Automatic annotation (TrEMBL):
Pfam families with a match to the protein in the record: HI0933_like, HI0933_like_1st
Natural source organism: Lutimaribacter marinistellae
Signal sequence coordinates: none
Name of the protein in its database record: NAD(P)/FAD-dependent oxidoreductase
Flavoprotein keyword on record: yes
Length: 389
């Protein structure tokens, strides 16, 4: 069987690409259903894009690579598509757009778009062999025990990254890149909770607090959640993409607030209030209790000198913690790094040294922040490749 294009992976990027590609297109996936990560994303409501998506929200060895694709298929284009399909959505916070009802609507929309474009979808299908031919590629596939030998002019790698192997994530795109001599950047779990092996945060599990988290030169103002294993919540997931083993994370619990001035004013107005009671007006009470011994919190506000209050605010604004590690690919939302973009055209996503070979989505070394940015990259890069097929 001959196809113009075969797309490996019926995830976000692969389906988007198939919906816009010309010619005879086949999408293959080893899963039982397409778009499994879309289905579980955003707590089942899919944070499908971000109003503020811009190149600054992406990490890559080449920060310029994502610019062209993001500019040619924007968040507004995807919002338009979603709206045309009558899918109701809302902005949750920080420009993050979610379906009102279900992430399954996004999958149904992409399947409908793919089908309308004439693309075929083969599920439960594995790649057994891949070879370059003079005019393209020869593939041997296994579909539930049946062998198929196919050829195609274009091959699109859209099998994503390594996060959540239980959901069928594999390193297939990386293996194929290697087969064709394309470089990889270091891959690591990202948008992932931190672990502390000493279990120090167990008593605080479930407590959430707004913080500014800083590591590796980046800062995020979002919520932090204490867990049985360590620290999670959007602030920690975001900063995990910038953190490296052995390095501390700096946490500002004052969230840039003028806490010192507030504490001084309260000392004047309510001097007999316990300092822990006053702090519990600004931070979760369980956290204040847990921090009290380390911060030597005792006595009333009236007992606290200016110097003591200043030192206290400084400690609260520069809480330095060194995680033991992260929860790894088991729970990471994305893989940081991937197929090195240097070998690809940023306009078409085609490998410069292997005509007809394309890579899109998470498989490529472009990783978005938390908040709908990773799907936007999947839509934009999938669309960019489709224009060149
Ligand atoms: P994706 O992983 O979507 O698709 C890859 C496809 O390839 C899969 O269908 C897989 O089965 C298939 N495949 C893999 N190996 C194969 C093989 N060997 N043979 C055949 N097929 C193979 N992002 C965001 O912007 N907003 C959000 O709300 C969320 N939420 C979220 C929650 C959770 C729990 C996770 C794990 C991730 C997110 N993300 C997210 C990230 C987002 O899901 C991710 O970045 C995109 O799905 C990447 O799209 P791709 O198409 O590149 O890969």
């Amino acid at each position: 069987m001959e196809f113009d294009t075969i797309i490996l992976g019926a995830g976000a990027a692969g389906m988007m690409c198939a919906a816009h590609a010309r010619g005879r297109v086949l999408v293959i996936d080893h899963a039982r259903a397409p778009g499994e990560k879309i289905r579980i994303s955003g707590g089942g409501r899919c944070n499908f894009t971000n109003l503020h998506a811009a190149p600054e929200n992406f990490l890559s060895n080449n920060p310029h690579f994502c610019k062209s694709a993001l500019a040619r298929y924007t968040q507004w284009d995807f919002i338009d598509l979603v709206s045309r399909h009558g899918i109701a959505w809302h902005e949750k916070a920080l420009g993050q757009l979610f379906c009102d009802d279900s992430a399954k609507q996004i999958i149904a929309m992409l399947v409908e778009e793919m089908t309308r474009a004439g693309a075929e979808l083969w599920l439960r299908t594995e790649l057994r062999e891949l070879q370059k031919t003079e005019s393209g590629f020869a593939l041997s596939l296994d579909q539930e025990g049946n062998r198929h030998n196919l050829t195609c002019r274009n091959l699109v790698l859209a099998t994503g990254g390594k996060s959540i192997p239980k959901m069928g994530a594999t390193g297939l795109a990386y293996d194929i890149a290697e087969q064709f001599g394309l470089a990889m950047t270091e891959t690591r779990p990202a948008l992932v909770p931190f672990t502390f092996t000493d279990g120090r945060f167990k008593p605080l599990a479930g407590v959430s607090v707004g913080v500014r988290a800083t590591a590796g030169g980046a800062s995020f103002d979002e919520a932090m959640l204490f867990t049985h294993r360590g620290l999670s919540g959007p602030a920690m997931l975001q900063i995990s993409s910038y953190w490296r083993e052995g390095e501390p994370i700096s946490i500002d619990l004052t969230h840039g607030a003028a806490l010192f001035d507030t504490l001084r004013a309260q000392r004047q107005a309510a001097g007999r209030r316990a300092v822990t009671t006053e702090l519990a007006r600004h931070l979760p009470a369980r956290l204040v209790d847990a921090l009290a011994p380390d911060l030597r919190l005792s006595g009333n506000l009236a007992d606290q000198s200016d110097a003591h209050l200043k030192a206290l605010c400084q400690q609260l604004s520069q809480w330095r913690l060194t995680p033991s590690g992260t929860e790894g690919y088991r729970t990471a939302e994305v893989t940081l790094g991937g197929i090195d973009t240097d070998a690809f055209s940023s306009r078409t996503m085609e490998a410069k040294s292997v005509p007809g070979l394309f890579a899109i989505g998470e498989a490529v070394d472009v990783t978005g922040w938390l908040g709908g940015y990773n799907f936007q990259w999947a839509w934009s890069s999938g669309h960019a490749a489709a224009q060149a097929l």
